[in-house]
């Protein structure tokens, strides 16, 4: 049976399309993907992303453990702020892309993908048990996914909405900085973050969940529903739209962001000492802090010496056509790779996509062809984002 978020009943009443995604029944759109997409690019939208996973680490050994199981330096940010980091398997492939918040007092809060949190929790608890066979650990690991509602408010008007709701200027916060806020007596964690390329914030609210797998924890999500409806009410003057996973995907694609399960994954290629997909192949080396030991580091160092074989690249269509996952990519008549994500950009009106291709073709300005329903359509590789960053996105100038 598919999992359900706290506000599933609200979405069932208001969304035009609900489908299963990563094991969760989620709203895909309320009005249309294009309308919701453009609301986020030009004004503001709100997403219920409570299907995202949350894992809490507590204890004096929590930081040491996280430094070993993730790639980035999670010791650097002060409380309360987060670090984008990766979890790898022993052979260098990406188990998930995560965000780890230092909450202070030896507590850390990890946000992970909807279809990865269960395997990550199992992985971490397995590692903890293994280490404890040899040494004592002051570490508690708790899965909180079903207890926390998460909403993402995104778009150029998100700053104004945060000011109205919480009396704070999110532009005075650095990216991934967080703080505790209250709205009508409801306490929540707010971080300046998002997955759309736009300015915005995300809130985390611990509340009862009518669909919690533990029947003893089931109840009405009064706090989460109140905050969701207040966001929509206060956002009316800015043209806010509730947005589903359809727009979330087209927005992240326009921004050039990877999606776990498409661009990042572990293929479990057991016949080799280097698995795929690695951070080096996925252009995520910025999330690696090389001056520490972490699971998967040795495999990445070997890959640096041997070469990547294939690498991620972004492309836009020159000919008319919409690229989709699994479509083959060619250059000079040679098969060089495969599309991992693709769509028709609601903002630009052209096909855009991400692909893994042979390493020598993974640079901007290369003419390629995408096989779309048996016809090879011209495209060109580009540097993301696909939109003009002076006109749209977090760093827009207008």
Automatic annotation (TrEMBL):
<keyword id="KW-0808">Transferase</keyword>
<feature type="domain" description="GCVT N-terminal">
    <location>
        <begin position="7"/>
        <end position="292"/>
    </location>
</feature>
<dbReference type="GO" id="GO:0004047">
    <property type="term" value="F:aminomethyltransferase activity"/>
</dbReference>
<feature type="binding site">
    <location>
        <position position="202"/>
    </location>
    <ligand>
        <name>substrate</name>
    </ligand>
</feature>
<keyword id="KW-0032">Aminotransferase</keyword>
<dbReference type="InterPro" id="IPR013977">
    <property type="entry name" value="GcvT_C"/>
</dbReference>
<dbReference type="Pfam" id="PF08669">
    <property type="entry name" value="GCV_T_C"/>
</dbReference>
<comment type="function">
    <text>The glycine cleavage system catalyzes the degradation of glycine.</text>
</comment>
<comment type="similarity">
    <text>Belongs to the GcvT family.</text>
</comment>
<dbReference type="InterPro" id="IPR028896">
    <property type="entry name" value="GcvT/YgfZ/DmdA"/>
</dbReference>
<dbReference type="GO" id="GO:0019464">
    <property type="term" value="P:glycine decarboxylation via glycine cleavage system"/>
</dbReference>
<dbReference type="InterPro" id="IPR006222">
    <property type="entry name" value="GCVT_N"/>
</dbReference>
<dbReference type="InterPro" id="IPR022903">
    <property type="entry name" value="GcvT_bac"/>
</dbReference>
<protein>
    <recommendedName>
        <fullName>Probable aminomethyltransferase</fullName>
        <ecNumber>2.1.2.10</ecNumber>
    </recommendedName>
</protein>
<feature type="domain" description="Aminomethyltransferase C-terminal">
    <location>
        <begin position="310"/>
        <end position="388"/>
    </location>
</feature>
<dbReference type="Pfam" id="PF01571">
    <property type="entry name" value="GCV_T"/>
</dbReference>
<dbReference type="GO" id="GO:0008483">
    <property type="term" value="F:transaminase activity"/>
</dbReference>
<dbReference type="InterPro" id="IPR006223">
    <property type="entry name" value="GcvT"/>
</dbReference>
<dbReference type="GO" id="GO:0008168">
    <property type="term" value="F:methyltransferase activity"/>
</dbReference>
<dbReference type="GO" id="GO:0005960">
    <property type="term" value="C:glycine cleavage complex"/>
</dbReference>
<dbReference type="GO" id="GO:0032259">
    <property type="term" value="P:methylation"/>
</dbReference>
<dbReference type="InterPro" id="IPR027266">
    <property type="entry name" value="TrmE/GcvT-like"/>
</dbReference>
<keyword id="KW-0489">Methyltransferase</keyword>
<dbReference type="InterPro" id="IPR029043">
    <property type="entry name" value="GcvT/YgfZ_C"/>
</dbReference>
<comment type="subunit">
    <text>The glycine cleavage system is composed of four proteins: P, T, L and H.</text>
</comment>
């Amino acid at each position: 049976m598919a999992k359900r978020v706290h506000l599933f009943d609200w979405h069932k009443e208001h969304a035009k399309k609900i489908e299963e995604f990563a094991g969760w029944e989620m709203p895909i759109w309320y009005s249309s993907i294009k309308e919701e997409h453009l609301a986020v690019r030009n004004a503001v939208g709100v997403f219920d992303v409570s299907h995202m996973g949350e894992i809490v680490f507590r204890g004096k050994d929590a930081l040491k453990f996280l430094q070993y199981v993730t790639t980035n330096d999670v010791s650097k940010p002060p409380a309360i702020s987060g670090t984008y980091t990766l979890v790898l398997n022993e052979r260098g492939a990406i188990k998930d892309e995560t965000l780890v918040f230092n909450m202070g007092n030896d507590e850390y809060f990890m946000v992970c993908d909807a279809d990865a949190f269960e395997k990550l929790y199992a992985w971490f608890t397995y590692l903890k048990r293994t280490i404890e066979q040899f040494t004592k650990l002051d570490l508690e690991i708790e899965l909180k996914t079903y207890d926390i509602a998460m909403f993402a408010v995104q778009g150029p008007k998100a700053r104004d909405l945060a000011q109205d709701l919480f009396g704070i200027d999110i532009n005075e916060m650095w990216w991934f900085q967080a703080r505790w806020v209250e709205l009508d007596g409801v306490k929540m964690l707010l971080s300046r973050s998002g997955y759309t390329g736009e300015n915005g914030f995300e809130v985390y609210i611990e509340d009862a969940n009518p669909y919690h797998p533990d029947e003893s924890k089931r109840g009405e999500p009064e706090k989460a529903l109140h905050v969701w409806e207040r966001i929509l009410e206060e956002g009316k003057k800015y043209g806010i739209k509730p947005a589903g996973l359809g727009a979330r995907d087209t927005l992240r694609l326009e921004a050039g962001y990877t999606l776990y399960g498409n661009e990042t994954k572990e293929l479990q290629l057991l016949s080799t000492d280097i698995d795929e997909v690695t951070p080096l192949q996925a252009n995520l080396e910025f999330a690696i802090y090389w001056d520490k030991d972490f699971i998967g580091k040795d495999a990445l160092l070997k890959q640096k010496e041997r070469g990547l074989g294939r690498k991620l690249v972004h492309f836009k269509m020159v000919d008319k056509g919409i690229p989709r996952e699994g479509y083959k990519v060619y250059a000079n008549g040679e098969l060089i790779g495969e599309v991992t994500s693709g769509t028709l950009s609601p903002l630009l009106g052209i096909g855009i996509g991400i692909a893994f291709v042979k390493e020598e073709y993974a640079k901007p300005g290369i003419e390629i062809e995408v096989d779309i329903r048996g016809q090879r359509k011209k495209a060109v590789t580009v540097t993301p984002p696909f939109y003009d960053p002076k006109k749209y996105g977090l760093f827009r100038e207008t």
